[in-house]
């Protein structure tokens, strides 16, 4: 192994680690606020990549029907809650959901995006898929928000299995690989950095910095931090747990879809690829103890580098090497953490 190979492997490791860091952060965000281990996080990645692939291949965006179905399901639950609590006026969000599904779904099904600029394709992908995050929370998790973490985990696994089946139905078994954002490359001596790798790193850094500024500088960010630190105290201060849950799922879906859009030009994504990708982000979040954002990001970056160098030394065992790392980390966490009963 010479210096050039080390540089190439390091580039791949940092690129993959940036994606894993984003997923690790989203898993930690959702877990700290809602106690939900978001197993379906990877589905947002695969849905984002495959939707971009469908657009560039000129295929009809049948994933729009999933958005319509989820909006109708969420509205049905809203109407049921209104009937159960004897409220006469529906929330303004109910007609807004129906209008959004009708407009975005209609545009997605009637317009061919193959010849449009990539920025328009990315925007349409986000409009289609990002709202599925809070809709998923409304349908699957909000009715059981006060359940134990084990019940929430079981439901999360069930949602993941259901979405994998939906992905196979909507996108088919064929993989998708999209065109890169730009064809240029950066030459640093004998090292050639692809523009797509730079896009991944830069956008990941922007999202991480944006999340930091949101949670440190904005009122909503501070409210979500309060819900993460002390759920009961946040409720007593008037912070809605429903709002916190939907906001976290919105951020998680945004991060997942953007991650899928970013890595689609680098690797072929299949309908079931998201689980393996998010599992590596989960290993990073475990390094952070599911509470520390910097440690989770650093752990995910380390996972990307270990995976990259493992492909050179022992490519047949690279997945095993990555996932075996979780065993000593869990043992160390278990022995060094004082176990207490949950506050509620």
Shape: globular
Cα Rg: 21 Å
Strand order of the largest sheet: 1-2
Oligomeric state: single chain
Order of helices and strands: HHHHHHHEEHHHHHHHH
**What is the name of the CATH architecture?**
Orthogonal Bundle
Characterize the main sheet.
Answer: 2 strands, antiparallel
Distance between the termini: 54 Å
Supply the number of helical segments: 15
Q: How many domain units?
A: 1
Describe this structure in words.
- With 344 residues, this protein is mainly alpha-helical.
- It has one domain: ABC transporter involved in vitamin B12 uptake, BtuC (Orthogonal Bundle).
- It is 72% helix and 2% strand.
- It contains 15 helices and two strands.
- A two-stranded antiparallel sheet has the order 1-2.
- Helix 2 packs across helix 5.
- The longest helix is centred in the N-terminal third of the chain and has 32 residues.
- The radius of gyration is 21 Å and the shape is globular.
Brief summary:
The chain is mainly α and 344 residues long.
Features:
single chain, 344 residues, mainly alpha, ABC transporter involved in vitamin B12 uptake, BtuC, two-stranded antiparallel sheet, 15 helices, disordered C terminus
Tell me the layout of helices and strands.
Layout (H helix, E strand, L loop, with lengths): L2 H32 L6 H16 L7 H21 L8 H18 L7 H12 L2 H10 L7 H23 L13 E4 L2 E4 H23 L1 H11 L1 H6 L4 H23 L9 H15 L5 H21 L4 H7 L1 H11 L8
Antiparallel strand pairs: 1-2
Helix pairs in contact: 1-8, 1-9, 1-11, 1-12, 1-13, 2-5, 2-7, 2-11, 2-12, 3-4, 3-6, 5-11, 6-11, 8-9, 8-11, 12-13, 13-14
């Amino acid at each position: 192994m010479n210096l050039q190979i080390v540089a190439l492997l390091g580039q791949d490791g940092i690129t993959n680690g940036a994606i894993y860091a984003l997923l690790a952060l989203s898993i930690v965000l959702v877990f700290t606020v809602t106690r939900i281990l978001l197993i379906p996080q990877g589905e947002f990645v695969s849905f984002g990549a495959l939707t971009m692939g469908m657009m560039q291949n000129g295929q009809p965006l049948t994933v729009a029907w999933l958005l319509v179905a989820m909006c109708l399901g969420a509205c049905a639950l809203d109407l049921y809650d209104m009937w159960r609590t004897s409220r006469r006026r529906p929330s303004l969000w109910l007609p807004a959901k129906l209008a959004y599904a009708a407009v975005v779904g209609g545009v997605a099904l009637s317009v061919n995006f193959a010849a449009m600029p990539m920025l328009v394709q990315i925007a349409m992908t986000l409009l289609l898929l990002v709202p599925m995050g809070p809709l998923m929370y409304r349908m699957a998790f909000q009715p059981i928000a006060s359940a134990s973490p084990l019940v929430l985990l079981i439901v999360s696994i069930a949602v993941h299995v259901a979405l994998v089946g939906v992905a196979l139905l909507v996108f088919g078994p064929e993989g998708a690989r999209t065109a890169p954002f730009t064809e240029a490359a950066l030459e640093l001596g004998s090292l050639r950095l692809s523009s797509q790798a730079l896009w991944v790193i830069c956008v990941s850094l922007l999202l991480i910095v944006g999340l930091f500024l949101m949670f440190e500088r904005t009122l909503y960010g501070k409210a979500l931090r309060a819900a993460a630190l002390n759920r009961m105290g946040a409720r007593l201060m008037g912070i809605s747990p429903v709002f916190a849950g939907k906001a976290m799922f919105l951020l998680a879906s945004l991060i997942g879809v953007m991650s899928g859009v970013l890595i689609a030009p680098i690797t072929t994504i299949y309908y079931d690829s998201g689980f393996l990708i998010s599992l590596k982000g989960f290993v990073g979040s475990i390094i952070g103890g599911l509470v520390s954002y910097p440690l989770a990001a650093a752990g995910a970056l380390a996972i990307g580098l270990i995976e990259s160098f493992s492909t050179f030394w022992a490519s047949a065992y690279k997945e095993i090497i990555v996932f075996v790392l979780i065993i000593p980390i869990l043992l160390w966490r278990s022995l060094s953490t004082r176990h207490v009963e949950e506050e509620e």
